[in-house]
Amino acid sequence: MTNTDLKALELLFQRPLEPVFTTRDSGKTVLELPDSFYTDRYRNDTETVGNRFSKDVDLKIPVQELANIPNLDFTKKLGPKHQFSLFNDRHREIASQLITLFMGAPNLRQFVSLSVYTKDRVNPVLFQYAYAVAIAHRPDTREVPITNISQVFPSNFVEPSVFRDARQEASVIGDSGERVHVDIPRNYTASDREDEQRLAYFREDIGVNSHHWHWHLVYPTTGPMEVVNKDRRGELFYYMHHQILARYNVERFCNNLKRVQPLNNLRVEIPEGYFPKILSSVNNRTYPARVSNQLLRDVDREDANIEISEVERWRDRVLAAIDQGYVEDASGNRTQLDDVRGIDILGNMIEASPVLSINSNFYGNLHNQGHNIISFAHDPDARHLEEFGVMGDVTTAMRDPVFYRWHGFIDSVFNKFKARLDPYNASQLNFDGVTVDYIEAKIGKSNTKANTLLTYWQKSSADLAAGLDFGPSADGNIFASFTHLQNAPYTYTFNVTNNGAKRTGTCRIFICPKVDERNQPLRLEDQRLLAIEMDKFTVDLVPGVNTIRRQSTDSSVAIPFERSFRPVGADYQPKAADELARFRFCGCGWPQHLLLPKGNAQGMLFDLFVMISDYTQDSVQQPNTPNDACSTAYSFCGLKDKLYPDRRTMGFPFDRRLPNANLTELVGAFGNMAKTDLRIVFNDRVIDKA
Ligand code: CUO
């Protein structure tokens, strides 16, 4: 790939609503289009507009003619100013066709041309989604970084008055070269009259929402088989969302709120209201709100028809399949829901992926249609011409308290299945001759106490300029400052004795809350469902005593802040190949700044749990595909073009029931496990990022 191709592809993530011939890269670069590429609106003025935008640029990138002009009529059902939703069957079908078209471009140059040609002819959000999926999956675009969605469509992520400030600031400061800083307020969606607002810092976190978007980008439900049919994707759908729920529930305890009530009855009012305030980029309207105590109703709109009774029927069939222990395909063939593949089959069937579900006519589309019914609750028959609320879109769904209630229900279905499996037995849990003698987690500074970790607020900034259409194109970027939870980095130290020959193990680190919001002790069964995966890595054990050290910042769950919000544009492109490689697939991963739950001022008590499992039972035979330097958050996101790198079912050993009465007995029974009390202390101060 030449630098120009790379650059052309990167530019298409910028200014998603502006015509493709306008300048990008802070006015430095322009794409030179063949005349045939101009849409009807500009066709008669190709010379004028082309010249106007190529006047003062440093670089003009010529775009090749297309060998075949594609017929894009299939995209027309979704107008340019309509909201695009991955949960909507019709939209997904359009996206699937567009992804297939992009994947089919015969070479890189033609892919560039096809993307440029398509960009102004289809709904901009649809384009950005299908384009990003293609970039993530085409073998010849491995080096192209996918711009974080919060930078492409910043209005979906931040309070809209900042954009006014940003434009004003930029036009005042102009070309002076200074950076423009604007402040995103905290707590703008509700007051403290609303208890749920205590969790806003989690639900509305930019990193949380962009992770969720990126996950669904890497694991689409429709499209060409090579894009959709990934190793254990159904199981990962279960596990990634299960971990979100565990984290959210623990975060609720930290804020004196009880666990989420799963939304298992669609016929009663939903007490939680939500007023998102954010703007939709495509039509400049705010996302519709849902008032408190809203009743769900059947959805009967041009773009969606869903009956609540239909969703209930699917729910009952899924639950019956779990009770029976098998699923049936369309011809009546049965597949057992066993302890290895069962969860993967259920994940694809419940989400649902129409191409991977074992029987989508019968088991339906439970999870997606739940999102849709909830997202249209404010205007189910479109009489007010309102579009879907935030629950209708993966970029915004996690902002709404009801997301956790719906996913709490979905998670309860998966947990029902897991509870039917036998508890883990000694041969699955044990690692003979390996004992974990000592564990601690300690903040780096010398005078800190072991097993007391610290959280606080931090003010950071991210460059949101890439997505600011029709905005100031002058040099310099627009940095938005926002305040988010942060944790002080710490180190795990474990002493492990190996009474045998040299061997390999997998170190699995979890934290489990010890008490609920009323300070009542939790049973092992609750602790296991609320266990938060912190890290997982392979360790080589020499005979005798081994000391294992691991930084919290190396977690297999999380990605660093800088990777979520790297500045956009050619100037920031790393030159070294390995650095560049790290850009790919990089946006998927839990934000490092939320690795630890908030804790509380007195110090919230957790069990820090460590297990070294037998690698011969964990290892997988990877295909010989190139290693991806960037896929560090594999616990939640898998590895690109590889198998999920852990043969055990996800969440092991807490995904199934355990043979002991409590955690103390469990670690007492198995030498390869250990636990210690851990306190997380929250300091209510805002620290400016240096
Ligand atoms: Cu991620 Cu419901 O699957 O939002």
Number of strands: 18
Strand order of the largest sheet: 3-10-9-18-17-12-13
Task: Kindly estimate the percentage of residues that lie in beta strands according to DSSP.
Answer: 15-25%
Shape, per Cα inertia axes: globular
Regions with little confidence, pLDDT below 50 for 5+ residues: none
Distinct compounds present: CU2-O2 cluster
The tally of helices reads 24
C-alpha-based Rg, rounded = 25 Å
- What share of residues is helical? 25-40%
| Largest sheet: number of strands, sense, barrel closure | 7 strands, mixed
Description:
The structure is a single chain. It contains 24 helices and 18 strands. The model has no long low-confidence stretch (mean pLDDT 90). It has 690 residues and is an alpha/beta fold. Helix 12 crosses helix 14 (342-351), helix 13 runs parallel beside helix 17 and helix 16 runs antiparallel to helix 17 (401-420). It binds CU2-O2 cluster. CU2-O2 cluster binds at residues 212, 216, 241, 367, 371, 394, 397, 407.
